[in-house]
Amino acid sequence: MTSHPDHAAVPSASDAAPVAVATTPSGPPPPDAEHRRREAQRAAGRAGARKAVAGIGFYTFVSLVLAFFSLPLLWLAVAPFDANPGLSASLPEFTLQNFRVLWDNPYAMRSLGNSVILAGGTGLLVVAFAALAAYALSRVRLPGRDMLLYVLLLLSSIVTGTAAMVPLFNLATELRLIDSQLGVILVLSGGLLPSAIFILKDFMDGTPRSYEESARVFGASPFQIMRDIVVPVVRPGLATIGVWSVAQVWGNFLIPFLLLRSPDQYPAAVVMYTFYTEGGQANLALISTFSLLYSVPVILMFLFVSSRYGFRFHGGIKR
Known about the structure:
The protein has helices at 33-78, 97-104, 108-139, 145-158, 165-174, 181-205, 209-217, 222-233, 235-250, 254-259, 268-271, 284-308. The chain is mainly alpha-helical. It has 2 domains: 38-95, no CATH class; 102-308, MetI-like fold, CATH 1.10.3720.10.
């Protein structure tokens, strides 16, 4: 008997391993290069439009601010030469009669000289005493030095000349300084000194002490050191304080008005008050003309000091 070999089992179709079928994801196709370019152009256009609108808004705001400040100056430059000035800036009916009227006024031109005396005297006192005090506070180590300086500045800011007018008036009466330009100069100088000392101390701190030590070795006195070494270095600071003091006094009305009695000693800020009628109506022709003359000295002083020294709020030299 012959035997037949066993046949190998053949797997059926149902037993075969599952085959993975690749499928494509559903959805819109990716944007092409042309679509991306158009989107970039739209974004750039929107950014450019926003930038243009912002630029137009900024320059419009700047123009309005400039117009707000330039229109009064334009009126001040035009109204003195107008025969009938009003509250609006317009082409003037040219005349010099307003200047002739002011020249004939017995107090108008004299008041400008009084303002120069008050402003110049106060400026000299403030610069001299502030320089000495700032130099002392910068070089001498005193307990509570910085606290003293800040207290003086704080008190000068809180207790203004208006708030202290009653005790100042009583003090001027006791010292017989009523109706005296010297009394006005002293009162104004006392009010400006704390701030001037505070500003000048920064200039003094920036001055190298090695220069002073070298001069001291050669026998220079403290006054000589101050005059020949410190003052030339801090000259821009002294100029700044001088211009600031003169400007503060030049426009001050209350203290001269209360302490002076004689119209011959009135400064320009007080005399300008007389250009109003008893009913409070302003004489625009005289006020505009006098205001133009009143502003010229201060403008010239600013231009001169700025061109000569410049204005900066730091002192000393490079070391």
